Amino acid sequence: MKETIYQIIRGRIMYLEYKPGDILNEKVLADEFGVSRSPIKDLLSRLEWEQLVRVIPRTGSMVSEIEFSRIMNVYQVRFEIESFEAGLAEGQFASKHVAKLKELYEKCKSLLEKDDPKALTEIDTTLRDLIHDASGNQVLADVSERLYSQTFRLWYSVLIKSDWIEEVTAVIKELEKLLEYFSSGNSNGFGVIRRAQLIEHFERLRHKFLGTVNSPIQPK
């Protein structure tokens, strides 16, 4: 029950149902879910550790603001972590993973005719799960997911305001690139591709969120 409540509240934060700056009242949440305030306090502490909320003395827990400067730093770490993980995953990226990748590609193409931001984020999440599974390193996967959760809201806030076809097409191209790579028989390039794709993804977000041109991050 406690884990279910945690996932619900976390989902509301991630998908901006609880907006940055909103106050999460322990009593209100306890009444909603029919539990005491103790488990609510515990899960809010967990969300604070994930940096999705922060405690305001004598007020409660506030949903963290989306601070681009900090998120930029998180992305810089993500580039390296996820590139490294993809490198580990490459040797274990089996036919079942490629088959799932093809499924994601077809599902993504179908979204060209259906405006469904959550479905697009689920495709991205499933791709990440494939890489986690192939890498076989749960510690690395946990670190990667914690960093991802800190950048997700920026992407989602941009996604729901952007041109839908453009956003879907960007993900389709990413999946196409991966399918081409794994069908080519090449090796030792998955990490490089993954890093480049994350940088391109960040650059697109940066431009739409800030409207700037010059990038503070350059590919290596």
Our measurement of the CA-to-CA distance between the termini, rounded to an integer number of angstroms, reads 46 Å
Strand order of the largest sheet: 1-3-2
Overall pLDDT, averaged?
93
| Binned strand content | under 5%
Give the quaternary arrangement of the chains.
Answer: single chain
Into which percent range does the helicity of residues fall?
over 70%
CATH class of the largest domain: Mainly Alpha
Count of individual domains: 2
Low-confidence stretches: none
Radius of gyration: 19 Å
Question: Helical region count?
Answer: 9
Named CATH architecture of the largest domain: Up-down Bundle
Q: Tell me how many strands there are.
A: 3
What's the main sheet like? 3 strands, antiparallel
Structural class: mainly alpha
CATH homologous superfamily (4th level) name of the largest domain: GntR ligand-binding domain-like
Judging from the principal axes of the Cα atoms, what is the shape?
A: globular
**CATH topological fold name of the largest domain:** Four Helix Bundle (Hemerythrin (Met), subunit A)
Walkthrough of the structure:
The protein contains nine helices and three strands, in the order H-E-H-H-E-E-H-H-H-H-H-H. With 220 residues, it is mainly alpha-helical. Strands 1-3-2 form a three-stranded antiparallel beta sheet. The longest helix has 23 residues, at 68-90. The protein is globular, with a radius of gyration of 19 Å. The termini are far apart. The model has no long low-confidence stretch (mean pLDDT 93).
